[in-house]
């Protein structure tokens, strides 16, 4: 793996979602804000929940020795987004929004600080996504624990 290890692998993988991955990486690397817009719906969707619920869900997902998939927090951590396979069914508990086909997601450059969005769990560069069934279980358990 090239310098940057995990971060470089995450950049490569994320850029594959862009219509032009090479141009995306070039613009992203030069962007002083350290963010880019990437389309959801082809490589992944993002299920978005409020920060309180999202933090609890992430804690539950981390209890098992299974990868959680990439997780973002945005704007003062008001919302948390879990990367899932495109079209995956979302949890039935709590307010959940989906960024899927036709949506664009603000994505921070892995390893850089940004003002509005940050990685809670960095993409592994291999395409690992949250398992929708585990995510549903974690949301259900978090809501039950209230």
Essential attributes:
single chain; 146 residues; alpha+beta; two-stranded antiparallel ribbon; 4 helices; 32% helix; globular
Describe what this molecule looks like in 3D:
By secondary structure, this protein is α+β, with helices and mostly antiparallel strands. It contains 4 helices and 7 strands; from the N terminus they run ααββαβββββα. The protein is globular. The mean pLDDT is 88.
How are the SSEs ordered, and which strands pair?
Layout: H1 6-15, H2 21-30, E1 35-39, E2 45-50, H3 51-62, E3 71-74, E4 79-84, E5 97-99, E6 104-108, E7 117-121, H4 132-145
Antiparallel strand pairs: 1-6, 2-4, 2-5, 3-4, 3-7
Characterize the main sheet. 5 strands, antiparallel
Number of strands: 7
Oligomer: single chain
Per the principal axes of the C-alpha atoms, what is the gross shape?
globular
Radius of gyration: 15 Å
**Terminus-to-terminus distance:** 43 Å
Strand order of the largest sheet: 5-2-4-3-7
Low-confidence region ranges: none
Task: Output the number of helix runs.
Answer: 4
Mean pLDDT: 88
Q: How much strand content do the residues show?
A: 15-25%
Structural class: alpha+beta
Element-level helix/strand string: HHEEHEEEEEH
**Helicity, as a percent range:** 25-40%
